[in-house]
Amino acid sequence: MEVQVQRSTVLPHGNPKTSPSELPLSIFDRFASNIHVAVLYAFAPPTPTDEALIDGLSKTLPHFPALTSRLGYAHESRRPCLVIGDDDGGALLVEATVDCNLSDHLPFKPSPELRQLHPPTEGVRCMFQVQINRFNCGGVVIGMTHVHTVADGESMSHFLVAWGETVRGLPIDRPPVHDRSLLTPRSPPWSEFQHRGFEFLPMDPNQNLLRLNQTSVDPSKITSTLLHYSLEFISKLKSNITNKCTTFEALASHIWRKITISRGLKYSQHTTARVSVNGRTKLNIPNEYFGNVVLNACPEANVKLLVEGGLPAAARVIHDGVSKTDARYFRSFVDFGEIYGDEELVPVYALEGNVLCPDVEIDSWLRFRYHEVDFGGGLGMCGLLLTWVPLDGLVVFLPVLGGNGGGVNVFVSLLEEHSSILKQISHSLD
Fold it and tell me: Among 67, 86, 116, 343, which residue's Cβ finds the most Cβ atoms within 10 Å?
C-alpha cells in the first residue's frame, strides 16, 4: 500500500469573531489518558467527494468545540481546562490517495502499515486530526485521532454520526451536550471510596492500593491481532455459563481465560481484568454528553480459579467485579473531583509501562453508534479498526459492520510469544 499525502491544512475553530472561552476538564477528563487514540473507518464506494466530506466536517466542528480546543489552565481556579476559540486551536485535516482498491485490504487486519492512513500521534499540535484516504476504487478510509482527555469513545461515535448527517444536508438529530453542570457534586461532597491510589496516584508513594506494572519492552515485541467470534460461537459460550449473562460478560470471560493460559501464568498468581464502565446511565447523563464519563472496574481472580473453574467461574468474577462500579461509586468519584480538584492529580496510567501482564484491559465499543454512521454513499461503514497499539494486554471489542455476518471482532495486543499461542486456542471451548 502506497499512501500519497496531497495536502494538509488546519481547519479553524469556528467563528473567528468569538472570544476565547474556557471549558473546565471534568474529573473524568483528568482521569483519561493524555494520548492520541487512532481509529480507521472504512466506506466502500460510492462515497461522497473529498470536498463534500471536508465541507461537512467544517460545518460539524463548531458543534463540537472541544475538538478544536487546546489544553490550558483556567484563569481563576487554575484547574486544567480546554481553551476554546483561540488562535492555537483547530483540527488538522490531511487529504491522501492510495494506489490500490479498498477491497484489497478488507477485512482490516492490524498492521503497522495501516498507520499510514492516519496522521502521526506523537509530537503533534492539534487535539483532533483527520486523514481522508481516497482509494483507486472510490472507497474512502477516514483515519481519525483525538486526545482521549477531550472525549471518550461514546462521544466520538456521536461526532461521526453528526458529521455524516451534515454531509447529507441534514440537521444534527442528536446535538452534543457540553453542560459540565451535569457532573455537579453532592452538597456536601462525600468521597466514600479510595480514588487516590486507584484512579490517581497517591500522595504517599508507600501507598499501594493499585498494582501497577511498570514493565516496558521494545514495542516491536508486541503484536496486535484481530479475532472474530460468530453469533453461533457466542451462543455456545453463553450456554456453558449457568447464570444468565450478557454477550460482553461471556466474551470477556472467555478471552481473559485464553490470554491467561497463553501467558503460562502460575496458578498462585492473581490476574485483573480492567474493564471500562460507561457512567452516563449511572449518573443520569444523556448519551449525547460530549467528554469522558468512564471509569474502570477491576475484577480480580486467582489464576487457578480462572483456569480450572472454567467459563462459569470467570463470568461470575467479571459480573461481580463490574457491578461494584455502580452509581454510588461514580457519585463518589465526582465528589472526589470537587474536594481535591485544585490539586495536581496524576492518573495511574502515568506510571504504567507497555506490559500489563498478568493483567488485561478490556474495552467494549459494541454499543457505540457506528451502525448509524452514513455519509450518503448508501452502504454505511464497512470496516472499523484500531491501527497498531503496542500495549500488551489490551483487548477491544468491535462490532462487525457492512453485512459481514454479525458477531464480534476482538482486537488483542500481546507479547508476540503469547499472541501465537492465543491464536491456536482462541476458539477452544475448554
Answer: 67
- For the chain, give every residue range classified as CATH 3.30.559.10: 3-182, 218-365+392-425
pLDDT tens profile 155-194:
999 999 999 999 999 999 999 999 999 999 999 999 999 9
State the alpha helices, DSSP H only, in 281-359.
303-308, 310-323, 327-340
The predicted-structure confidence for 194-246, as pLDDT tens digits, reads as follows 999 889 988 665 555 456 678 899 999 999 999 999 999 999 999 999 888 99
pLDDT, average across residues 93-112: 92
Helix (H) or strand (E) holding 272: strand 270-278
Superfamily of domain 3-182 in the CATH hierarchy: Chloramphenicol acetyltransferase-like domain (3.30.559.10)
Reduced to 3 states (helix: H, G, I; strand: E, B; else coil), residue 259 is helix
The predicted pLDDT at position 106 comes to 86
Phi, psi (5° rounding) for residue 260? -60, -45
- The span from the CA of 385 to the CA of 396, in Å, is 10
Its pTM stands at 0.94
Q: What is the pLDDT of residue 405?
A: 72
Cell numbers of 19, please?
A: 472570544
Residue 302 CA to residue 305 CA, distance in Å, equals 5
Any idea how long the chain is? 430
Q: Are 338 and 302 in contact (CB under 8 A)?
A: no
Catalytic residues: 148, 374
Q: Assign 24 to helix, strand or coil.
A: strand
Condensed to tens digits (0 to 9), the pLDDT of residues 30-68 reads: 999 888 999 999 999 999 999 999 999 999 999 999 999
What topology is assigned to 218-365+392-425 in CATH? Chloramphenicol Acetyltransferase (3.30.559)
According to DSSP, the β-strands at 21-24 and 80-84 are antiparallel
Residue 353 has which C-alpha cell? 509501562
Coil, helix or strand at residue 352: coil
Residue 79: per-residue pLDDT: 87
Q: Which whole-number Å values give the CA distances from 39 to 130, 190, 383, in the listed order?
A: 10, 38, 10
Q: Which H/E stretch holds residue 422?
A: helix 416-425
Burial of residue 121 (CB within 10 Å: 0-12, 13-18, 19+) is: middle
Side by side, which strands form the sheet with 128-135? Answer: 3-11, 91-98, 128-135, 140-147, 36-43, 381-386
Mean pLDDT computed over every residue of the chain: 93
